[in-house]
Amino acid sequence: MIVVKFKSCVYNIVHQEEIKPLWRKVSEYLKNYPERLLVAKVLVENGLNIKNGKIYCNEIEIPVVKVARVAKVDRRTVVETLKMISKNDELRLIFTHIRSAGISLREIARPLNLGVVEITPEDPKIVGILANAASIIAEEGISIRQALTDDPELSPEPKLTLIANRKIPGKLIPKFLKIKGVAKVSVY
What we know:
Blueprint lengths: L2 E5 L2 E5 L4 E3 H9 L3 H12 L2 E4 L2 E4 L2 E3 L1 H8 L3 H13 L1 H9 L17 E7 L7 H11 L4 E6 L10 E5 L8 H5 L4 E6 L1
Antiparallel strand pairs: 1-2, 2-3, 4-5, 5-6, 7-9, 7-10, 8-9
Helix pairs in contact: 1-2, 2-3, 2-4, 3-4
């Protein structure tokens, strides 16, 4: 029996015997096809789904050639990747239900005068970094507008980004650095 949990950009395939993260499953299936793996990575990173052999961002169809350009492969590689994914029941289930997590304020925070704190963990599996960072911001009377995390399987240096309704005071940096598992902090 397969159960797929969809929440933001976190997807796991849950088997009765084992739990495998999404990217490990995809990379195992495509390991002999490095270019197809690049295509799959573009799909996952952008929350693009597959329906009837076509690529979509939520309900907007994305031309195969555009994905090929981003993945730096030819369009035939993209088409073959879609066919290969569609032949695997588990991957087909994932890629037909994957969705974009929505708008990110990360790139437009400065012009909107929002505060941003980026936290790089020592190990992204350490529990409590998000909760503790959010508490520090809340204690300062600042509201968090958005929390974004990079997937540690897809990003070589995953970060937690908290975007607040106003600038984050620099005096909070030492508090963030005291959180168990925090390696680096940037505030802007």
